[in-house]
């Protein structure tokens, strides 16, 4: 397979730099070739998106919804093809990727239905004979920049609300999700989405992504990725007065109190920490455990982690696959080395396959680490979680909040008053009791506090607020 750009309804292969994609589960397997674009392709895409804007924006919401619904049906029909390709491209286990594709299908159907929902309010006027109301209108051309860790769901949770609100789009996928992006674009073509409504440009963030943010004539940018890049993008957008949304990193904690039900807590902790090889912005990367339950929890976790199926992402029984790339592998291994030198490894997984055949990092739980250590404060984005013990609930919440990030947090308890206090006391955009830190449903607002977000939510109704602007209308009669 080869990546291609899709601009103004035409396919073409850019003649820039190219690289071979190797399957992170099995480096000897060449999955395809990615062709990277020059920045000039972004300007071409911006012109195409601008040209198709009036016709797309003037369609009824019902008609735009029909296109989204058609894409949803096609995506579901191609679930195996999309999940296999994405899993081979970035290493997420196939069982999870099938779930991710279905999330994309549900998101498309959810936003398709928004095309015929009420849009705006009637606001009583102080004058007689005046009808006053507000209506949501499109922003215009929207630039969408996505990461590789959810190569299907994140693009769709941006594209679907952008399109239903009447915007046209330039989408710059992550470099190592470009093959999957090409396949998704093929489904948009099959759904007969009008030319130029979505334009897909493959390329490096530092040139194509930056040209989209800094130079292309766009009306909004929606970015998901690391906090460092997101903050740079926010500055550039603010300088141009381009509306922006940045969803960024996390360092999410799961707190386990003495009264927790470990039968429920342990699987939720494993899933939060080690599914997707810990490469979720909402991954559980800190465990904060009350002293009384710590010995029992550590015993359970040590046993369970040793039994996790670590292996090839296309094996349906795999729980933890490889990390996505060489860069990820080196970065995550540097944290594992720190865990070995500066802490105590209390649990570690074992691979079912040759660990050197791909980018395999064993699931690891490390304790005896200072709360200000890099392992506890930095986003590792791999299957490594730290375990800290605390005397009581107050100390747990203090540690939970002692981070730059504020994406998600969980508490495991049977005590209703601690559960309710926790939902109030924690500075995170998504707070969950007796549930893992990951897994917020598509119809609910998604986003973080502090350095995790520019504070505008995605998904659910919240996304419609970002992808539209409000016009206040008044008619005297
Ligand atoms: P990244 O920041 O390196 O890249 C994200 C995207 O931005 C890619 O498409 C990349 O090409 C592009 N990019 C890079 N430099 C750019 C620039 N200067 N200008 C414009 N675009 C640029 O992140 P990543 O490694 O792809 O993804 C992992 C990160 O994403 C983690 O920090 C993770 O927490 C975060 N993430 C956050 C959420 C969320 O909703 N909060 C969801 C998923 C991932």
TrEMBL record:
Keywords: Oxidoreductase. InterPro entries: Ald_DH/histidinol_DH, Ald_DH_C, Ald_DH_CS_CYS, Ald_DH_N, Aldehyde_DH_dom. Gene3D superfamilies: Aldehyde Dehydrogenase, Chain A, domain 1, Aldehyde Dehydrogenase, Chain A, domain 2. Residues 14-472 form the Aldehyde dehydrogenase domain. This is Aldehyde dehydrogenase family protein. It holds the Pfam family Aldedh.
């Amino acid at each position: 397979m080869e990546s291609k750009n899709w601009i103004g309804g035409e396919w073409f292969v850019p003649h820039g730099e190219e690289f071979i994609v190797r399957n992170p589960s099995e480096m000897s397997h060449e999955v395809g070739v990615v062709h990277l674009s020059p920045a000039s392709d972004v300007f071409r895409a911006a012109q195409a998106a601008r040209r198709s804007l009036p016709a797309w924006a003037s369609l009824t919401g019902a008609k735009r919804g029909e296109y989204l619904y058609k894409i949803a049906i096609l995506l579901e029909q191609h679930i195996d093809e999309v999940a296999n390709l994405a899993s081979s491209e970035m290493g997420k286990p196939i069982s999870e990727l099938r779930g991710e594709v279905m999330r994309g299908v549900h998101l498309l159907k959810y936003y398709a239905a928004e095309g015929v929902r009420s849009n705006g309010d009637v606001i009583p006027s102080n004058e007689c004979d005046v009808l006053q109301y507000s209506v949501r209108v499109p922003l215009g051309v929207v630039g969408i920049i996505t990461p590789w860790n959810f190569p299907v769901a994140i693009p769709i949770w941006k594209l679907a609300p952008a399109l239903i609100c009447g915007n046209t789009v330039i989408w710059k996928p992550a470099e190592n999700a470009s093959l999957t992006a090409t396949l998704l674009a093929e489904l948009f073509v099959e759904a007969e989405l009008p030319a130029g409504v979505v334009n897909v440009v493959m390329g490096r963030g530092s040139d194509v992504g930056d040209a989209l943010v800094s130079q292309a004539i766009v009306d909004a940018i929606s970015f998901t990725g690391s906090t460092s890049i997101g903050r740079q993008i926010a500055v550039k957008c603010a300088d141009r007065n381009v509306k922006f949304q940045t969803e960024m990193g996390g360092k999410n904690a799961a707190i386990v109190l003495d009264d927790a039900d470990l039968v429920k807590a342990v699987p939720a902790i494993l899933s939060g920490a080690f599914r997707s090889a810990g490469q979720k912005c909402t991954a559980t990367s800190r465990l904060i455990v009350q002293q009384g339950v710590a010995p029992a929890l550590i015993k359970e976790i040590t046993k369970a982690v040793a039994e996790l199926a670590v292996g090839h992402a296309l094996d349906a029984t795999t729980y933890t696959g490889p990390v996505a790339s060489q860069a990820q592998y080196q970065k995550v291994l540097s944290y594992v080395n720190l865990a070995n030198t500066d802490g105590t490894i209390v649990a570690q997984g074992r691979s079912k396959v040759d660990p050197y055949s791909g980018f395999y990092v064993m699931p690891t739980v490390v304790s005896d680490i200072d709360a200000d250590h890099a392992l506890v404060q930095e986003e590792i984005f791999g299957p490594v979680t730290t375990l800290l013990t605390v005397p009581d609930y107050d100390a747990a919440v203090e540690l939970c909040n002692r981070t730059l990030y504020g994406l998600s947090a969980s508490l495991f308890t049977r005590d209703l008053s601690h559960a309710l206090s926790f939902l109030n006391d924690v500075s995170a955009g998504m707070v969950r009791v007796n549930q893992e830190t990951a897994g917020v449903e598509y119809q609910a607002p998604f986003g973080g506090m502090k350095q995790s977000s520019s504070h505008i939510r995605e998904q659910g109704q919240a996304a419609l607020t970002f992808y539209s602007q409000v016009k206040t209308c008044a008619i005297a009669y």
